[in-house]
Amino acid sequence: MSQSQTLNHVNISPIKAFSDNYIWAITKSESHHLALIDPGDAKVCIDHIEQQQLVLSHILITHHHPDHTGGISELVRYCHNKQWPIEVLAPKSNVIPDVTRQLKEKDKIELTDFDVTLTVIELPGHTLDHIGYYNNELLFCGDTLFSGGCGRLFEGSPEQMHTSLNKLKQLPEQTAVYCTHEYTLANLEFALAVEPKNPKLVHYYHQVAELRRQDKVSLPSSIALEKQINPFLRADQTSIKESAQQYLAHALHDEVAVFATIRKWKDSF
To answer: What does it catalyze (predicted)?
Structure first.
């Protein structure tokens, strides 16, 4: 377990799973209830529940990949054995188990145990079923947006991912960004290859390098920060376009082509 942040009157903490996953745990100080985002590993979640004496009431899923969904069934069984009501909220998919409500763009999620309302945003690109959950203060974006990076295009097109990232760019700048992998330092090493003269990026790289030397979590980020340092949100910037053209050795004429080029570059970086 690592440090928690208090936001929107709730506590948001990362539960570490596998080599670099974060399962986000939402709690409220006056309550024993717990909501989990993308619990790929049931054991670490059950350990957390029992150590903290919590009651799991909600599971929110962003997409169907097993490292985000693999713990659902065991957690549902655990809750049933405890006679706890449990809601599993997820995008429409044939492979996500035990879903109690399938979600689409603009659906509202009322987490009444936490006095939190989240809105669903569809984010195809990494997968076709990918969604995020947000309000004016926070965003759970799964594997769409990372700090300094974005998800690989396993199912969607560059156009889809570019559109999804542009939707996230429109969120309020103070929005805290909770993604689900500790990829920040590696992402920033690539971002520096693309935009080495970005002073905010250089500064952030050194901040994150120090955090990771201390084995501290680099998240959450913010929309404001990502717009300043993340090359995948900056395909409209001349510096990014010039680097992409240099990598490809020919001219690029639109943002999607720039985005697609740096995504391909990152895949082999």
So the answer is: an S-(2-hydroxyacyl)glutathione + H2O = a 2-hydroxy carboxylate + glutathione + H(+)
Reading the block at residue 86, the tokens are 């449990």
221's enclosing H/E stretch is strand 221-222
130 is known to lie in a ligand binding site: no
Q: Residue 43: pLDDT above 90?
A: yes
Instruction: State the greatest distance between any 2 C-alpha atoms of the chain, in Å, as a whole number.
Output: 62
Q: Which residue type sits at 226?
A: E
Task: Please give the Cα distance from 59 to 42 (Å, whole number).
Answer: 11
64 marked ligand binding residue:
no
What 3-state DSSP class applies to 29? coil
Query: Is 41 annotated as ligand-binding?
Result: no
Number of independent structural domains in the chain: 1
Q: Say how many Å lie between the first and final Cα of the chain, rounded.
A: 31
Alpha carbon distance 226, 243 (integer Å): 18
Determine whether the annotation assigns residue 181 to a binding site.
yes
DSSP label at residue 137: S
Does the annotation place 68 within a ligand binding site?
yes
The CA distance from 56 to 86, in Å, is 7
Q: Is residue 254 part of an annotated ligand binding site? A: no
**How far are the Cα atoms of 107, 175, 190 from residue 229, in angstroms, in the given order?**
30, 16, 11
pLDDT given for residue 5 in this prediction: 72
> What pTM value is reported for the model?
0.96
Per residue in 145-190, pLDDT (tens digit) is 999 999 999 999 999 999 999 999 999 999 999 999 999 999 999 9
Could you tell me the residue range of the domain that residue 225 belongs to? 5-267
Cis upstream peptide for 220 (omega within 30°) = yes
Is 38 annotated to bind ligand?
no
By the 8 A CB rule, do 194 and 262 touch?
yes
